[in-house]
Amino acid sequence: MYLEHVNLTVSDLDRSIGFYCDLLELHVRWKGPIDGERLGAHVGDDRCYLALFQGAADGTVDRDYSRPGLNHFGFVVDDLDEARRRLDHLGAMVHLEAEYEPGRRIYFLDPDGHEVELVQY
Q: Is residue 63 part of a domain?
């Protein structure tokens, strides 16, 4: 078993596509209309992807760890230092670094405020 996708509502679909493709060297697997008006895209590799959905209203991501909800999602990377350089280039700031078994990790917010973890084992 493996996790096939995570679905995120985003405020700017093309910005999010560019961010995740540039950061993680992903590609657009699909892009098109979802409900007749709004667009969506699948950004990933041949095994898994992020489903990005263009939001219809403004808002903010709720990252309250004390309440039920999605806290963050993570990606395994081969080179965490290179991923951090890409984050810097993209203008994303790391707000937490941790190193404990079984790996080293960093946490940051994507352009819409979703918390993302990158880990190197």
A: no
